[in-house]
Amino acid sequence: MPRAILDVEHVKKSFGHPGRWWVPKGGFRQTIPAVDDVSFFIRPNETLGLVGETGCGKTTIGRAILKLTPLDQGRIVFDNVDITAMPPKQFRPLRRRMQMIFQDLDAALNPKMRIRSILKEAICVHHRLTDSEIEQRTRELLEQVNLKKSKLSNYPGELSGGEKRRVGIARSLAVGAEFLVADEPTSALDVSIQAQVVNLMRTLQSELGLSYLFISHDLRIVELISHKVAVMYLGKIVEMGMAGSIADAPRHPYSHILWSSLVDKRSREGMSEFTCEREQNRGNFRDRETRSLGCRFAPRCPVFLDKGCPRECTSPETAPELRDIGGGHKVACHFPL
Amino acid sequence: MDNQRILTIENLHAYFYARSKQAFIRSVDNVSFEIHQGQTLGMVGESGSGKSVTALSVMGLVQGSPGVISGAIRFHTPDGPLNLLHGIDRHVQLKRHNGRIMTVIKAARPWEKRLQRRMKGIRGSQLAMIFQDPRSAMNPFSTIGRQITETILRNTAISSRKEARDKTLAWLEQVRIDAPKIRYHNNPHGLSGGMCQRAMIAMALAAEPTLLIADEPTTGLDATIQSRIVALMGQIKSRLGLTTLLISHDIDVIRQLSDRVAVMYGGTVLENGPVDAVLDPAAAPKHPYTAALLASVPDRRLIKKKGVLKAIKGDVLDTINTPKGCRFYPRCRQYHGKIVAACVNQEPPLSPVAQGHAVRCWLFEPINSG
Amino acid sequence: MKTFRQITLRVSDYSQVPLWRKARSMDLACVGYGMVVVLMVVGSYFLGASGRLPFDPQAIDMDLLNAPPYTEGHLLGTDFLGRDIFSRLILGIQAYFLPGLLAIFIALALGGASGLVSGYRGGRWDRAVTYAANLVDSFPRLVLILLMVAAFKPDIYLIMVVVGLTHAPTVASMVKSKVIFLKQQNFIEAAVCLGLNTRTIIVKHILWHNCRALLIIQATLGMAEAILIETSLSYLGFGVQEPVPSWGNMVQSGANYFLQGEFWPSTAPALAILFTILGFHLLGDGLNNILERKQG
Fold this sequence. Notes:
The structure holds three protein chains of three kinds.
Chain A (H helix, E strand, L loop, with lengths): L5 E11 L14 E12 L4 E5 L6 H8 L7 E6 L2 E2 L5 H8 L2 E4 L13 H10 L6 H14 L16 H14 L4 E5 L7 H18 L2 E5 L3 H7 L2 E6 L2 E7 H6 L4 H14 L21 H4 L10 H5 L4 H4 L8 E2 L5 E2 L6
Parallel strand pairs in A: 3-8, 3-9, 6-7, 7-8
Antiparallel strand pairs in A: 1-2, 1-4, 4-5, 9-10, 10-12, 11-12
Chain B lengths: L4 E14 L4 E14 L3 E5 L6 H9 L7 E11 L2 E4 L10 E4 L2 E5 L6 H9 L7 E4 L3 H4 L6 H12 L5 H14 L5 H4 L9 H14 L4 E5 L7 H18 L2 E6 L2 H7 L2 E6 L2 E7 H4 L9 H8 L4 H6 L23 H8 L4 H5 L5 E4 L2 E3 L11
Parallel strand pairs in B: 3-10, 3-11, 8-9, 9-10
Antiparallel strand pairs in B: 1-2, 1-4, 4-5, 6-7, 11-12, 12-14, 13-14
Chain C lengths: L18 H4 L2 H26 L34 H8 L4 H25 L1 H16 L2 H11 L4 H29 L1 H9 L3 H13 L1 H25 L10 H9 L8 H28 L5
Helix pairs in contact in C: 2-12, 3-12, 4-5, 4-7, 4-10, 5-7, 6-7, 7-10, 10-11, 10-12, 11-12
């Protein structure tokens, strides 16, 4: 089994008031834990799909890996090098090996630069090349992402969504990335363009041996593109395992609800019974009562209600840990389905 | 009464002038359809296909002065049909060349004011709209209860504030917001996205409109919330029998909620028919675009096999330079493999292939000798 | 009746449409007028240097005091010492232009740098810059200039240094808000991810590509302001000193005779000030609309 290219160990990050000496501890100084003790690893040429609802901390993890957001605790090891506390200067050579595809199509490219200079800049960051070499590399990149050569002289604002996405991918490839954090790469695109981008990403993976952290809320696409899937809920990974086994038989009640909502949408008959009506308690860190509790999903959990609100779900000491239930399938739940 | 028409749109055009490109964006280009009493028409299409602009045209909310709106939007009131665009054509003169609008002769300035005046009595009371982003569609400085009460007082026969308040609570109950008495006093920002969308639906329904327009009601919500909103809309539909124009890019939502479907592409309707005939992959989709759209969403079998998605090649149609022939032709050629000379040169008409099912494609049309 | 042309451009040709064709004709007219003003200013230097003025601007003609326009070849008449107003008008702008450039340079360099630092670094830097800006802003500018003049000497360059310093906070706050806006955009983060160093990101992505329009516009507006400041100072007698001609001291000296019906000695430079400042303002405004691709 090949070693992991990326290892994320017990990562924690909270946002909120930075805290000053005049602010009493535990007073009105509130921090919002966006990511709470998350660990996973990605092997070369592998895709980990990260799914979850808005605000569950998916994007924060992706940004933390690229050191765009500083971490509170935990360790990130990239290719056997601990990058958690690496000074920026030392980290710069490693940067080119890991890149990010941003969710926002329009903000990800400098609006005042032509596509040609965007690509040229990326090509020349780490290597000194002659003009003809740059020209050739540009052509190569365009071919890799199926972009027309005539688009080179356009500004990003003149491209369509799919083309902007391709330019973003090409820029990542230009520096020679091996590992890509793809933050919702398809959510801003039309269905037909989504399919193109997903196909492109899979082709590139098989051709160039890339590894992806694929962050998305589109379960079908995640299942299609990923080898492993991790389901997040309010900053914690609640279930992790092979994509097929999670999609076929989700064991955590939350993942079950996620995947059954997909089925609900496809069938005309209506909703399956296994859904919670308590949407009002939808996970939100601003709901104070859910913060101190053990299992974060308990307030919405149908199993929790069925079992008569057992103590171990709500007590902070016995918060469910991620444990293996066979075949590399991990669940953080006292009563897996 | 079942078959009574509520809304008829005939040859609707809505063009906007883009100065930086020095050209007209043909957002809506020759759209015709009708909605009957109690029916839900789903409009599905990609971005820039003109679905939202069609909805905004019906609501009389289109703006952008060097622009054109023409055609007929007939709203069938009990007193007889009312063309919302009546008299607006007079201010816009289009020069046609080979049946296509090439030049706009007159200034399009006066039509906006006329449209606003005409829409005053209709909007709100007879036409209501649910927007994509409920937070920005509601006043952030007022409570949702007060906003719904205002709607009721303005648009229905109820004139006492107390009665309207009770009615508001009833509507909040209806859209399954629990503890409506507490939520009544919440600002839109105090609610989660799903709850806010429910409040928005309640507000639209509170006016007791004849026609409800829902523009992407589930986009931007989380998956679990989405399915709940869809379920709610399904319940409302069966309970109230409301006539709805539902707009979404999500085929699943359309399939679940609508009776008839209009597939939009590049500003026009490519296929129009009952939902089972149009959007059922098993029923052999008629138009190549519909087929391709259905194929680009992965199904279980494909995911299991880890197969390659069937993507539509090329990009979403640029609505400035619409091709001379079929709109979908530039992307269809690669997909379908069949090239018909007429596809390149002549736009196909919307021709019936079955009862109440029409397709705009030369594959389903005897080609003229021209 | 207004006709819109249907342009038959092909799809990929948008970027080939030159900037001026995408712009509004009103903006083009403004910029055109502004350019004419700038050209006239530059032209005055050529005329002054080559000595091709109709009269010697310093030559005193005691026979023709406050002569009306068109007397003996004096196109705009003469002033109270019988000097040719037209020649002095041409040279008058030279009292402003180079000192004005100095003021602009100081304002842009200081304001731009501090705006960049406070916007990009934030935190302590931002606070420091904001306090300094507030300090400068809260001191009346004219009083500060008068203090400097009193302490040193009434030198136009000295005055313009003060004008530049006091204009810097305006530039700084504009640059800062722009930088804060840009920092939220992902492309800055993308550039960080690519491994570009901070200097390249700031200079290339922020300053050159996204702030240059703003700085150009601030430069033109700054020039207009410098002219106004000098005019008001000259009127108080602290600006450019006689006998060197400047529009400000021309207005001042001519104003004494205004009520006696001899309006031309002060009206001509006043109108010149009006049209020049208008020109710089319109230039800035038009450039702003065109460069930022604002659509009408």
